[in-house]
Amino acid sequence: MNLLAQATPDIDAPAWFWEAFIGGVLLLLVLDLVVFHRRPHSVTAKEALGWTVFWVSLALAFNGWIWWTFGERKAIDFFTAYVVEESLSVDNLFVFILLFQFFKVPPGLQHRVLFFGIVGAIVTRLAFIMAGIELIERFHWLNYVLGGFLVFTAVRLLFAKKEEKDPSETWIVRTIERLVPFTPQFHDGKLSVKRADGRRVATMMLIVILVVEATDVAFAVDSIPAVIGVTHDRFIVFTSNVCAILGLRAIFFLLARFMTQFRYLEPGLALILAFVGVKMFGLLNPTSGQSLLVIATILVVATVASIVNPEKKRPEPIDPPIVG
Fold first, then answer.
1. Where are the domains of the chain?
2. Which H/E stretch holds residue 81?
């Protein structure tokens, strides 16, 4: 079954739509770094809540514009893709907590690390999305490959044993440490400094940013196929993805204290991945509204179940990297 034939036609977005969206995102990021977070500081829970409301409201406002400009179906596709990407991103926040603890990133610099991570993520996600959809349009059988990959990932989430891995043992960290000469200090957030002998070397700040960028590429391998499983519309996939990751920093500081308590989050995400994977196989043919309802129901049930039946014993819980 050709899933592309079932989808609504792509938005015929003129070039200036893309340019305006990317330009607006860049403007917001510059304002965020230069004005609102010009001075490194620890992000409080209250501040994180305010920024979370801001970014989510901005995404919903853009979703409203999609509805007004392109109709209900495209708006539902956008919102569904946004929810899927945001949900998968939240599950990955635990990895960032481990990385920040391992590298001993000062709380005042954590926001800046995530800022550069988001800039890199926007570039890599655009490349992943364009290449992925182009391949699917040329080779329809890739739908089944991606669907199978999502189902495999879902099974792995459900049944894989939980093991805390030392980030220093990952190939990413080992490779960077071999190739990049660096000094094991952060130097107030500078990316490089000169030694006494005049040689310029990377700081720990640059090393952490590179690790975060590489980690995000690994995350995209899971999340991009899931979003493409919702819609193949390039404009919808890209804009929903960017809107989701823009709010990821605020959500990180907001949920870092509590996310380990959501014991049913991963099983819920596994069900979402399995649902999208089976949908890509053509075994299910729900409408956009039905897909959104299924995904939202799974998230709500997983969250409520985690609150009603919290984990009673958690071996050595990891303290969140938040001060204030």
1. 41-308
2. helix 72-102
